[in-house]
Amino acid sequence: MVLGIDLGTSNTVAATLSRDGSPVLIPDANNKDQQITPSIAIIEGNRAYAGGFAESLYESLPDKQIISYFKRSFGTQDPVYFDDDNNAWFSETVASLIIRKVKNDAELYLPDGFKQAVITVPAHYNDVQRKSVIEAARLAELELSAIVEEPVAAALFYGSSNKKIDEEIILIYDFGGGTFDLTLITKSGTQLNVIAKDGVNKLGGKEFDEIVQETIRADYEKAFGVPFPSDKLTNNRVQKIAENIKIELNDAATPANISKWIMIGRDAFESTFYYDGYAARATQLITKTEQAVNRCLRSLGMQFTDVNKLVLIGGTSSSKLVYNFWKQKIAPHQELIYHQPLSSVAKGAALYAASFSSGSSSLVTPIELRSVSTYNIGLLLSNSNRQQIDLLIHRNIPLPVSSKKVYRINPSKIDFVLIELCQFWDPQEDLHKLGTIKAGPFGPVSEFLLEVNVENRLNGTIGIKLKNAENGRDIKFEFIRKESGYKYDFLQQKSLLDNIYLNNYL
């Protein structure tokens, strides 16, 4: 059997394949009616609660923080939580609690277990962020067959049940809880071709929640004339209240203002949420996604009218504001599709996992996936007066791809060579310095040519090799990530996990 996991910012969903090859969701082991795991956790001493457990217990643990939106910290090396013993928990470690929880659900649901597992990642994730997801799976002792991008997984599922989309240009619009991704795809038989990708980091349902939270805080301070409380229980409670009100505003069949009595501590007050004001600010956020869509299409010399189908997925896409925004943009020859926004990614991941299994059902159509580089990839020689990025790999070039750059090195003048590995769309606006390649010292050798090989793999991660271009010998190097006040250590983080009970099981 196989396991596909959509590790989402707000919710996590897992899927497998039934005996007829159809993707099915894996239910919560403690609540068979629940097929979605909230991506939240609470840590209390040697116990941790993930998903629905954490959601149901936060009121009874008023001094504990709900750890949420940790996915936004992937690749930063910054802790997202400190426990009672002041141990730093990183995003990878908290994510592993969620993975471990759904892994346990799958093992209880599948009597024979699973052999192939795939986790999804946002399409715009850079190398460091993708490797953080792989690290989270490693901490959870989940052996991955692959990672696959969320919109690609959704396209796999959509394409598996729609045989009439060959040679069409499909735009997968993935608006989730924490990120926005878009992917342009074509399909030809069993071959799925990604032709371009784009997105907006840190844009999702969280920003819609914050619009509502601002109203709650302002109405409280107006009612009582004191600053809004900042304790953990209040923060947890307001986060949940705001999410529910946001959903109510988003789902309104007829636009209307909403008034609610809200209890904060012992204080009760009425808060009014004006639909027009909320919709105006929400539309500003949706417009940012439109800008990314147009930017992506322009990179290919295309326009929105060239798209045949726009497929909406992700929790935020369930908003009527999002649907109506794009409905107005669609021409008569185009089709707007709202396709299982909360489950399509996990189901597509399960189908992709089956493509790695030689014993998969004969009813599962083999998948040939061809993707492209999300970012431009380049090198910046740090210990040099020449501050220009050497572009090695262009954005939207088919994967896998490799390229090299040769530098003339004089060891008598420098002890170490320092080269920044960079990913970017526009080096002036969104330059990501992933880390520093450090080579040397080279000893008593004369000037030589240093060859730096960079590979962008099919899963979007980057590999690096250094060698002496003159004699072909490999050169050892150290890759140094961004400096942080806290050092991530796999063994130390694994020890934290090994000594904790999760959802009342080890």
UniProtKB/TrEMBL annotation:
The keyword Secreted does not apply. Belongs to the heat shock protein 70 family. GO terms for molecular function: ATP binding; ATP-dependent protein folding chaperone. The keyword Nucleotide-binding applies. Keywords: ATP-binding, Nucleotide-binding. It comes from the Bacteria. It holds the Pfam family HSP70. InterPro entries: ATPase_NBD, Heat_shock_70_CS, HSP70_peptide-bd_sf, Hsp_70_fam. This is Molecular chaperone DnaK.
